[in-house]
Amino acid sequence: MTENAESRLLTLGHSPDPDDAFMFYAMATHQIDTEGLDFEHILQDIQTLNERAMRSELDISAISIHAYAHVLDKYALLPCGASMGDNYGPMIVSLTKFPVEDLPKKRIAVPGMMTSAFLALKLFLGLDDDKFEFVVVPFDQIMDHVRDGKSDCGLLIHEGQLTYEQEGFEEIVNLGEWWFERTGGLPLPLGANVVKKSFGGPMLTKINRVLRRSIDFSLESANRPAAVGHSLQWARGMDEKLADEFVGMYVNDLTLDFGDRGRKSVERFLREANEAGFIPAPVKLEFVE
Q1: Is residue 102 in some structural domain?
Q2: 194 with 151, same domain?
Q3: Whether residue 79 is found in the same domain as residue 199
């Protein structure tokens, strides 16, 4: 059965972060043609959005690439909206430098078991999650958790990647750099937007068109300052210059469309995860046309 998306409000889940706010600025402030579609913006952390996608609660949602492997029956990937670390990305940091070989012996604060960063960490260690010690902590509390001595190190997925040094932390490993080198130059796939397949082909294409229009709007040089200014509401202490740098890391050409590099990277990431036994079955990517 095909759902009628045009007759009701569509729920759109995304993170309360500068990059997502930047992407959806034009939609949130009614500056583009949404072709008759109305959206309710639901801002929640990525772990919560992953869990809600598992329950098929939202029409459209940001999701970790890791979690996407578990919702293939309900959701398709939108070609726009991806977040990828192109030779940068999630990193392990600690207050005291230690050899990366010691990482499996440490207690690691992580932002969620279904995040792509956590899956990348397992691939890096070559260990499933019952073979090393970790604790799940809200992503914006990880540095405080380590600073308070509750963990030896933390896995950073957001603006801490730019601010960790001024916060007094040392980098142990950058998983985006590791993946780039390991794969001969592929970006590390972190997040994407998904949409319920039940809406059917023409509506799925329309939804993708509207979301891409919003991203395009913010990336236009004339609109970028206002879009970055809007994103500062969720920048957690970053000034405009730093927020713009962070946004540029995760909203770019790969966000407009995965492209061949992005698709190859997602395929490899999930294939390696399946071969290691970290996800339950092989994944065949399904993109909206």
Answers
A1: yes
A2: no
A3: yes
Q: Which residues contact 229 (CB under 8 A, 6 or more apart)?
A: 240
User: Do 95 and 178 fall within a single domain?
Assistant: yes
CATH code for the domain of 131: 3.40.190.10
pLDDT digits (tens, 9 = 90+) for 25-36: 999 999 999 999
Angle between helix axes 116-125 and 259-275 (nearest 10 degrees) is 60
The C-alpha atoms of residue 193 and residue 205 are separated, in whole angstroms, by 13
Residues 56 and 196 in one domain: yes
Instruction: Please count the residues of the chain.
Output: 289
Each residue of 127-160: pLDDT tens digit? 999 999 999 999 889 999 999 999 999 999 988 8
CB count within 10 Å of CB 223 equals 15
41 is catalytic: no
State both tokens at 104: 């499996």
Residue 20 belongs to some domain of the structure: yes
pTM over 0.90: yes
Q: 137: exposed, middle or buried (C-beta count within 10 Å: 0-12, 13-18, 19+)? A: buried
Catalytic residue among 14, 66, 158, 230: 158
Q: Give the residue numbers spanning the domain of 168.
A: 91-182
Q: What is the number of domains present in the chain?
A: 2
E strands present in the chain? 10-14, 39-43, 60-64, 75-77, 83-85, 91-94, 107-110, 133-136, 153-156, 170-174, 188-196
What order do you get walking across the sheet with 133-136 strand by strand? Answer: 133-136, 107-110, 153-156, 91-94, 170-174
Torsion of CA 46, 52, 230, 165, to 10 degrees: -10
Chain-centre distance for alpha carbon 278: 19
6 band by pLDDT with thresholds 50, 70 and 90:
low
Instruction: Give residue 1's pLDDT.
Output: 44
